[in-house]
Amino acid sequence: MEERRPGLDPAVAEVRLAVRRALAGLRPGATVLVALSGGADSLALAAATAFEAPKPGLRAVALTVDHGLQDGSTDAAAAAAAKAEALGLEARVARVEVTGAGGPEAAAREARYRALAEGARAIGAAAILTGHTLDDQAETVLLGLARGAGATSLQGMAEASVLEGIALLRPLLGVRRVTIRAACAAEALEPWDDPHNADPRFARVRVRETVLPVLESELGPGIAEALARTAAQLREDSEAFDEMIDETIEDIVEHAEAGISVSAAALAANPAALRNRIIRHVVASEFHESLSRTQTLEVARLVTDWSGQGPIDLPGCRARRLGGRVEFTAR
Fold first, then answer.
1. What parts of the sequence cross the membrane (predicted)?
2. CATH (domain of 278)
């Protein structure tokens, strides 16, 4: 439990404890990079990191990514960096160009994570910290559910993952946004409210401002926590499946002349859930592409409902039945 000094606000204590736990696995003397937008979530994270990092001898650097998507973004980034310095952190700003497919949200996210990875490498950081909260997790699960993206999307975000070989930690993933706001108020921190976070053109904003409040109103409180628990349970299931795939795949996969092949009999002997995951894993690892459920089931029919059908065109590759094997070759 957090040892609170007299007068220490409970919200501040909760945020600091979450950060302390996330930093516990890092070696003394290591450097951490704090992703700081200037918003309440990242500002509370920066303040807690500034307080907790020196205890185990960690160096903490804040990086603000200026996406340049709106007027005044340069000033907002500079203000965020100044707040980091006032907290006792080293502060840096990275300007990025947001381009690419998938819409502005996806393009901005890709540019931001690329800048964080580059910034972390530049200072030799052992970990990157981001300010994602329990509410962000609930929103991610709802968006994945609406898109029919399957269990992988519904797993949401992990507390610890890897970004380009660097540990990516989300210390506040179990903390509610209302607690974050309370912590900022208690420490007299003035967050910057990004106008994009209130723009209903973005699906995540509509989920945050409309969908979740309606669910809370109609179904009762605790919806966000329930969605976060669902994500955690699905992630545990996925990790178990991944271990089963790792144990299975070496025995049933062979490299082909222009790709890779999988034993049809071995696929048929596995439950559908594992069979489909193996198919998706093979395509993702060999051709760096993702299959939809429809595409996955079409490939599975080469095993379960084989009647001489021809090759199936997939993203980045083609699948066909060749004797007792399903072969995947580059297109």
1. none
2. 3.30.465.60
Q: What is the dihedral of CA 121, 166, 281, 171, to 10 degrees?
A: -140
10-residue averages of pLDDT along the chain (331 residues): 67 98 96 96 98 97 87 87 96 86 75 94 98 95 79 82 96 97 97 82 89 91 92 85 79 83 93 90 89 92 92 95 93 83
For residue 68, give the CATH number of its domain.
Answer: 3.40.50.620
Residue 328 contacts residue 319 (beta carbons within 8 Å):
yes
41 is in an annotated binding site: yes
- Work out how many domains the chain is built from and give that number: 2
- Residue 307 labelled as part of a binding site: no
For residue 316, say whether it is annotated as part of any ligand binding site: no
Measured distance CA(102)–CA(198) in Å, rounded: 20
DSSP reduced 3-state for 249: helix
**173 and 313 belong to one structural domain:** no
Consult the annotation and say whether 131 binds a ligand.
no
- 3 lies in some domain: no
Let me know whether 186 and 307 are in one domain.
no
42 is in an annotated binding site: yes
Q: Is 251 annotated as ligand-binding?
A: no
